[in-house]
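Supplementary Methods, section 5.1.

A reviewer requested that the exact input to the structure prediction be made available. We therefore reproduce it here, unchanged from the version used in the analyses.
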Amino acid sequence: MRPKVQAFATLAVPALVVALAVRGAYVLFLGGVAAPTLLIATGVAAIVCGVWSQIERNQADRLRRSIAAVQTRSRADLHLRDALIGEGRQAVVAWDSAGGEPLSFCGGSELLATCLAGADGAAVSTALAHLHQHGTPFALSVDDEQDAAIALRGAVVAGHAVVFFHRARSSGEPERRSASSALAERKLNHLADGCVHALNQLGHAVAIFGHDRRLMFHNRAYARLWGLTKSWLDGCPGEGEILDRLRELRRLPEQTDFAAWKRARLELFETSGAAVEELWHLPGGAALRVVARRRQSGGFVYLSEDVSEQFRQQSAYNALIKVQQATLDTLQEGVAVFGTDGRLKLHNNAFARQWRLHDDELGNAPHLNAIAAACERRFGRDRIWKTISASVTSASPDHLGGYFVVERSDERIISIALTRLPDGAALVTFSDLTDHMRLQAALKEQPIASVVNEA
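The structure derived from this sequence is encoded token-by-token as follows.
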């Protein structure tokens, strides 16, 4: 509406000129009476529009001045805010130029009241008056009721009279606290350096991931084990990026669906916080033991160890045991090896046949007493296993060596030899001499008991 009025007012003067011209035409040629009326109406309209235009211009000027004042106050408030933020978390009291209620931050009004009520209240009041009236800055130090010093600093900031308060500590306390903080920081840094040094000395690869699943720390063994460069690891890659890089280097177990396997790895601790231990067989033949544990502060830790040599040694040991077992099974004599704890470590098929022992009775390294009980149930009570037990569990090597011949409860003649092995275990050999003894008795035509006694 206002632009239209102003435009109409602008055209009022030309309209008045046109009206005068029309009037003259009427007077000269027509001699009518309508021209004066038209002239008066046009003049009135021009005056009204002119007055309205002036009113609108005055209102626009007032609006522009109001906006400028608001902008000025806003800039002053921004300057005051920046100044207060720059002073940190100090207690502050600020008055504007209009003399309204002061603004108080961080307990500034309480500290001001304390300063005015103290012994130096008059000096503080005088300094505040000069700051309000003349903008004179000041810096004072007063004591409160506990004789603790309070530092005051007055200044004009963005048109505001501002007083900053700082409660000073007792003499020497800042230095002691600063020295204590520095000492604690040095100890913490020394401890952190020691931990990093210790982790770098480990043969196990260690990698620590944060809650965002990005690498926070790794030791030298980690980079060496996985064949990753230190500069790349120092960029804090995510777990997914590391898995992709290891797949490119063929340092991960072969997977039929790598995307699904990777997704399962990334969701490892989403539902459970239990530690996960896995054995990875890599394409190059290496075997790795990988353990993942959740951290209490968020994230998780990976521990990786190359167990390829252990696997080779275990395979060689298993092959040796199989060769030994096959060799023992070819013997006619029963052979049993008992450890220093009295448990069965090794036996052959002849031993199981001689004593009619089943696989479930010989499995899981049974104790010598359990084997003796099983034999007693089958053959009756005798002193054979009691003598063997006393010899096997004896700490003196003199109790082992040589052999003796006994008659079992089922009248079988058994020769028993006990030998101490280098690792402290006892080798017990059982030979069934029944047929040999009977043949020898038949040739001598005497009872077999006398032949056993002679043996």
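The chain has 17 helices and 15 strands. These observations are discussed further in the main text.
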